[in-house]
Design goal:
YaeB-like fold; about 130 residues; single chain; alpha+beta
Length: about 130
């Protein structure tokens, strides 16, 4: 039986890149966000389909990166360059969406180092994991 996770989109994620996705894609973004929430509710399936990658796995929290496409764009998940960084809280059965971005949103050469720094600066509760 699959675990059903509660999904929380953090305020920082809403205020930053999600706002840009909404402005750029309007209704298509609303559909995309609804699909992402449903996928995150059944997060274990994303690992089975190789859509999610575990970056850090501590005793009670996994930091994961996923790929997604915007509805109606015709791009693949990987080809779109769109990513989500989430914290999966094992004990609480909760997924916190920390960051949603497109590769063009990250200006640094090392994408992973850049998003890790964004997480460290804006989410002190996860700093020790990164």
């Amino acid at each position: 039986m699959s675990i059903k996770y509660a999904v929380i989109i953090e305020k920082f994620a809403e205020r930053h890149f999600i706002k840009g996705f909404h402005k750029k894609y309007a209704k298509a973004w609303d559909i995309t966000l609804e699909v992402l929430i449903r996928e995150f509710q059944s997060f274990g399936v994303l690992f089975l389909k190789s859509i999610a990658e575990t970056i850090i796995d501590s005793e009670d929290i996994k930091i994961c990166k996923t790929e997604f496409k915007v509805a109606g764009t015709g791009q693949s998940r990987h080809g779109s360059g769109n990513r989500c960084i989430v914290a999966l809280h094992k004990d609480a059965n909760m997924v916190s969406v920390l960051l949603v971005y497109g590769k063009t949103d990250i200006k640094e050469k090392n994408e992973t180092a850049a998003w890790k720094n964004i997480i460290k600066e804006n989410y002190p509760q996860y700093r020790h994991l990164l």
